[in-house]
């Protein structure tokens, strides 16, 4: 089978789905690999590197889509504004597309793929199990995003992070508040601590308290009798009463912080508002808020998707694609996630989807012209 990798064309996307090292390993596994010219350049990978790995370089995306049996992408197909052609229209019927989809948030996208007869696997639906750990692209990219979020905030903050005792006087450490202790939040915590900040972390799941403390953070605790974690380890949607209590508790912590980083997402739901406009109004002049959930509605009431704005003297960063700002390592990690998945679902260079397999049944969204994923079906009332 032929694996095709087009150049990502979504605005601001610098990653590539396949790096040369992984292309070489797929070639040894029996696959042919086609790479669009300059597909990896924005991530620091040259065509020469792909050629040395045994891949073939083609001039156009059309050639990749017309020849590829399996298409590997980071983002879902989008309209190419230069050619006025939509990537999904270039895909052959029966092709297997593997990419991020966020079908629980945008189920109509899945419906469009099914109508085109395109089979698809969503990397964001890989289950959180021990077997699937190496394929967990959400976690690998969240790790990168958590790291970059702190660096972006540090760049906008007019203060240094660490405690400094100098002949000219003492410089107090920056105070960072992180909302959400998932992969991104814990990486942000670790990065901020390494830079010398004092870090507080809020999460609705009491089970993560020990992880926060082990990384040197202080856990902001809210007493609750609600079960706030689903069977997959993700935060559940909470009641309005819980959100009200949470906002009351967080008000003091947020308004005294130099930096607030929000990471709270609920799969398939709009992101909960955790930082209200009123909180922002009471923050210190020159403080920074970074909303990692901005693409899905945002945790900050005044953040704007794709924009960095200043409101009430506070810088609000609404960067929706943080991992793409560290494209080299983000691509390496994502590519290894894809390799682990392909090795799991293929044999001797041929992909075979076994729907009795938990990873396949959870992550395949469209198959043979139909929506194959139960959760997406329910959202579309099928």
Q: How would you describe this protein?
A:
- This protein is an alpha/beta fold.
- It folds into two domains: 187 residues, NAD(P)-binding Rossmann-like Domain (Rossmann fold), CATH 3.40.50.720; 179 residues, NAD(P)-binding Rossmann-like Domain (Rossmann fold), CATH 3.40.50.720.
- The protein is 33% helix and 19% strand.
- The protein has 13 helices and 21 strands.
- Helix 6 packs parallel to helix 7 and helix 6 packs antiparallel against helix 11.
- The two termini are 32 Å apart.
- The mean pLDDT is 94.
Topology:
Elements: E1 2-5, H1 20-28, E2 32-36, H2 47-52, E3 56-58, H3 61-67, E4 70-72, E5 79-80, E6 85-86, H4 87-90, E7 96-99, H5 107-115, E8 119-122, H6 137-156, E9 164-166, E10 169-171, E11 175-179, H7 183-194, E12 198-202, H8 209-214, E13 218-220, H9 240-255, E14 259-262, H10 277-281, E15 288-291, E16 308-311, E17 314-317, H11 327-345, E18 346-347, E19 350-351, H12 358-363, E20 364-367, E21 370-371, H13 374-379
Parallel strand pairs: 1-2, 1-4, 2-3, 4-7, 7-8, 11-12, 11-14, 12-13, 14-15, 15-17
Antiparallel strand pairs: 5-6, 8-20, 9-10, 16-17, 18-19, 20-21
Helix pairs in contact: 6-7, 6-11
